[in-house]
Amino acid sequence: MKIKIKTNYYTLSNLCEMYDASKEIENMYLKSLMFSKEYRAIKDVCSSLFKKLRKKLIDKENTKKLFTITMEYFEAYFLVRLIQGMSTYLATTYILKSKMTSNVWEFQYDLNGILKEFKIIDGELTEEQKNYLFHPKRFPYTEDIIKIWQKSVKKVEVIIGKPDLSFDTFWNLYNYKVSKKNAQTQWKKLSELDKLNAIKNIKAYDGFLKRNNTAKVYPERYLKNRRFDDQFNAY
Angle CA(151)–CA(154)–CA(157) in degrees, nearest 5? Predict the structure, then answer.
């Protein structure tokens, strides 16, 4: 099934530039598992689609009138999904993790550095925190303010980039692939903060094992016994 869409040169040009940007972002974050399998499927379909769109762009260069582009229904569907995905990835996410409590906050800024979204991932705000955070002179409604927080606010740890807290991310990074079902069961019991710590501390744990010539525990034991809370760098 084919569909026809009316557009103009300016809109189609911006669409192609957005696609180029998506490829640059993928090259930057390929190793960090930033993109899902679904996203890769979308990119495969859109790759061939944008070859056709670029030809149309060349043919209609500097044309001011509306013109029609034709594509398969499934191509249009994946194009919409790509745009939806890029609206998320063409932004900067900051995860703020309290060093004193279980609080984890997420701030997402658009390309102009304006706050798009704020949400509490884990924990509850105390009255003191509410008064501090939502003060009009302190609330990080722009990216410039959150960057100041990085240097000046000592009670929070600032992580740039949205972490993938899926079990698959943990499973691949832990890289001791035994007893997967039991590990998944333990993973589901963890809070978002615990998942963040479990993933983050794998590197320190691996270093500890290497320094002490110690065998790695099963992933389910690492989670169940909360080994990710240990201070591995102290040993």
Answer: 80
Please give the distance of CA 119 from its chain centroid, rounded to a whole number.
14
Phi and psi at residue 9, in whole multiples of 5°? -60, -40
Give the residue carrying structure tokens 């979308």.
Answer: 42
Highest mean pLDDT, choosing among 63-77, 158-172, 184-198? 184-198
Number of other residues whose CB lies within 10 A of the CB of residue 29 = 13
- Whole-angstrom distance, CA of residue 104 vs CA of residue 122: 5
Phi, psi of 83, deg, nearest 5: -65, -40
Q: Whose CA is closest to 227, among 202, 210, 196?
A: 202
Phi, psi of 96 (to 5 degrees): -110, 120
| Whole-structure pTM value | 0.46
3-state secondary structure of 157: strand
Q: Give the pLDDT band (50/70/90) at residue 25.
A: low
DSSP string, 26-84: HHHHGGGT-S-HHHHHHHHHHHHHHHHHHHHHHHTTT--S-EEEEEEHHHHHHHHHHHH
For residue 137, which phi and psi values (nearest 5 degrees)? -90, -10
217 pLDDT tier (thresholds 50, 70, 90): very high
